[in-house]
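User: Structure please.
Assistant: Input sequence and predicted structure:
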Amino acid sequence: MFPKAKKTPPKDAESVNHKLLVRAGFIDQLMSGSWTLLPLGLRVINKINNIIREEMNAIGALEMLMPLLHPKDIWNETGRWEKAGEIMYKLVDKNEREYALSFTHEEIVMDLLRKHIQSYHDLPISIYHFSTKFRNELRAKNGILRGREFMMKDLYSAHSSEEDLMAYYEKVKGAYKRIFQRLGFNFKVARASGGVFTDKFTHEFQVLSDAGEDTIYWREGDDEAVNEEIFDGDKSQYLSAKSIEVGNIFPLGTWYAEKMGVYFVDKDGSKKPVWFGSYGIGSTRVMGALVEVSHDDNGIIWFPQVSPFDSHLLSVGEKSNETAEKIYQKLTSEGVEVLYDDRDVSAGEKFADADLIGIPFRLLVSDKTGSEIEWKERTGKEMRLMNLDEVISKLKQIFKNYAN
């Protein structure tokens, strides 16, 4: 693998995800708020994105990919060139034309819609993509939790009525709940403000964690929590927790359509503005949140469904390399994803790196194990010998359960 694990965290690292993801070789910092996803990190992000993708497709959304460089004109149509100016990165080309780097894509989707819809027959539409977002955060901090450049899945839906928009909004809310359940989070849905997106209330998906920047409040038995920024009641009556926002959904109404002239002809022949919704999940932020809620003193503890590999195979001792190589080839041919450590370093270093990287199942082949394999789970201390067929069967069953 590239790069090698590090023994110490970066000097400026304050958050757990910053320390561990850098040390274990998942991410590398180019500058404040800007991160390279290294091979291990990209594998985790792909697992996260595939879970998101499956749930988006299940509610009828279509995947595409939109540009990251946007002309000033399109942002001027809604007034957000000025309104969102503080968080936008703006640039000028050699012909004095002005552009922004994408911090979101509402205007771009609206431009698409006005080119391609005419009547109510063309609605509803639900489209999404995974792409980089750029936001000029005053202080990028907490490792990959708050970056100036990050990956996001954003979904947009267009409807012929408020009733249809809100029905789909609830459908997306359900899909988001399934996504965060599948990712293994303890989370709450919280009402929040709309920021620079809308003046309506919106919903956030908040992972309970002491590392969170937000505070949410809820009563015992409540389905939803409330973000502190809009909370105005007696806090003594509520439970509270720090939390990390990993997703949000916005019912945007007809404001964008009216500003950008996106109309359709309804059943009665009248011209009406499109009802619009926007829904986001920060994939890289999710990765950081997973590390914050699942680690110990030795390193990361990946949940199996998002682990970069299914298993971590270690070869210890000169005589074991040939056996380990055959086991690696067999596991790979059976569709088991294996990170194979055949380095010429001490057993202690291999064990320490395995704990740091955090793959959930460690497979050890040594001079002592002979033709068998020592199985150990990252979260446990028990080690037991198994034959190769048992290992393959056990791993396949575990990951089959997560796939379902």
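The radius of gyration is 24 Å.
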